[in-house]
Design goal:
With 308 residues, the protein is of the alpha/beta class. It is built from 13 helices and 8 strands.
Amino acid sequence: MLGPVILAASRSDKMRRFVSAAPGTKQVVDRFIAGETVDQVVPIVKDAAAKGLEVTLDVVGEDITTVEQSHAARDAYLELIGRLEELGLGERAEMSVKLSMFGQALEGGHELALANVRPVVEAAAAIGTTVTLDAEDHTTLDSMFAIHEELRKDFPQTGCVIQAYLFRTEDDARRLAAAGSRVRIVKGAYKEPASVAYQDKAEIDKAFVRIVKILMAGEGYPMIGSHDPRLIAITQELARQAGRKLDEYEFQMLYGIRSEEHVRLAAEGHRMRVYTAYGTDWYGYFMRRLAEKPANLLFFARSILTKG
């Protein structure tokens, strides 16, 4: 029951200040956040490539309040793409973007977010990689899907994310499981009301399996975002039943979580992508990681108690 409380705290400025000042915070944040700058994250991309892994890079910081900040977010991704091009790492790293960071919640936000994300998608395509639009809370999804559809007219490889805990997602999956699509399925990590989302873990897991089955039976490219060994095994079986080869879908896991499993899946021939977040505005991302798994919260609490 702690998850909803932590998710609520992720929107609290008071909690942001408390967590940021806590003596054990940096130790835990460093587990989930790859660094604050492009220079710090590039060696991680190189190391992943050497292990047969791929990455998706997320510049954290969705809680913006000005148009200028949305432009800064765009420029941060363009800087990242430029560095990947210089180092020849474009094919090993894609980008994940949250449209809220590109101004989606501001006045005229739909058009602003589209205008900001388009040059990022274009620059990514130019170096041989892709962009995936992350899913946020349910009130933003119609806008996200509309922007996704618009971008795919010129950049059909643009991906998007769907969340298993939302009632709408099975219908979204059927619509998106078309030829050429790239769809990441995750359980969901935002505080959503019972009117739109499953609240029980078992129900969310069942929905996750139903949606994976839809994606595997479709003509698109499923990206399975889960650390759950049971769901991973079920996914492998559903892929086998659908006649999919190992390069016709991929697994995705978070940087800092079950790292040995990343390497194991890659060694078995699976495409394995590590979701790697970096940047200075880490608080919202960090709190959602705590909410997802009680062990993360215990690790954080232990770090605070043993420092200072």
